Amino acid sequence: MRIALLMVLALLTACQASLPALPQWQGREALQHEQLGKIVELRTGKELTPEQLLQRLVAAPKVLVGERHDNPDHHALQLWLLRALATQREQGSLLLEMLTPDQQAKVDDVRALAAQGKAPQDMIGALNWQSGWPWSLYGPLVQYAVSQPYPLLAANLERREVMDIYKNIPTLTGEHSVGADVQEGLFEQIRTSHCNLLPESQLPAMLAVQQQRDRRMANAVIAAPQPSILFAGAYHVRRDLGVPLHLRDLQADEGLQVLILADAGSKVAPESADYVWYTAAQPEQDHCAKFRR
Q1: Which has the closest alpha carbon to 59: 225, 226, 249?
Q2: Which residues of the chain have a pLDDT value below 50?
Q3: Cβ atoms of residues 223 and 259 within 8 Å
Q4: pLDDT value at position 46?
Q5: DSSP string covering 63-118
Q6: Residue 12 has what pLDDT?
Q7: Model-level pTM greater than 0.70?
Q8: pLDDT value at position 18?
Q9: How far is CA 249 from CA 175, 204, 214, 219, 222, in A?
Q10: What Cα–Cα distance (Å) separates residue 84 from each residue in 212, 242, 248, 270?
């Protein structure tokens, strides 16, 4: 028995030693906050180490990771997660909200060139990377991903599809994603994110776009080689509002795990994810000020 325990401890030690070093915090806010760096299992309230989080994620066929788009620490942790998971298992695929289907052929071409040691110098141009996603934040992650043996996949709607939804709102089918509480929660998020300045008449179309994005991401995750991991905005991956509800409607949520990366000091509801990892906060900005002038 003692020998067996020693062997297990040796394996665990070797596993932990092989993990990449955690990135240093890049944010400048809340560096003394009691939540900073903590990983919490929301169902139990138990605090986890990064190694314990990996143990839970490594067996999951589908992992969704929610980010705050402008937080550099979130992107650094996403890259760490990819590298750390690679020491524990073979990754099946990575999906990004930041890529659309009309970019997929370019992504595949870049991956083929990278596999030959000929990665383009102008990665932004080669991928037709969209300026709305700052390359300074996403570049390191994408450059790592295109050099890996597993596919990098688009998970978002194309602009033309978004415009079509605005013009002709499609009917969303399902039991879980169309509930009144879900739609009201998304309405509130849309109002808040648009500074409570949107005419109520525009809300149905905005809601349709949000939910069709979530349905697209769900279908992309289902089609992707497993184990898959999706990086998207935190609202998209929420269990109570986003992609997980669509996966339930499509009977494809078995083994799903959801991790939200959140600024220290923010509140993450237990029903919204399986785990939260608190990072250095971004400075508070009044994004609505220019719209009120």
Answers
A1: 226
A2: 1-15
A3: no
A4: 98
A5: EEEEE-TT-HHHHHHHHHHHHHHHTTS---EEEETT--GGGHHHHHHHHHHHHTT-
A6: 45
A7: yes
A8: 85
A9: 6, 21, 12, 11, 12
A10: 32, 26, 28, 25
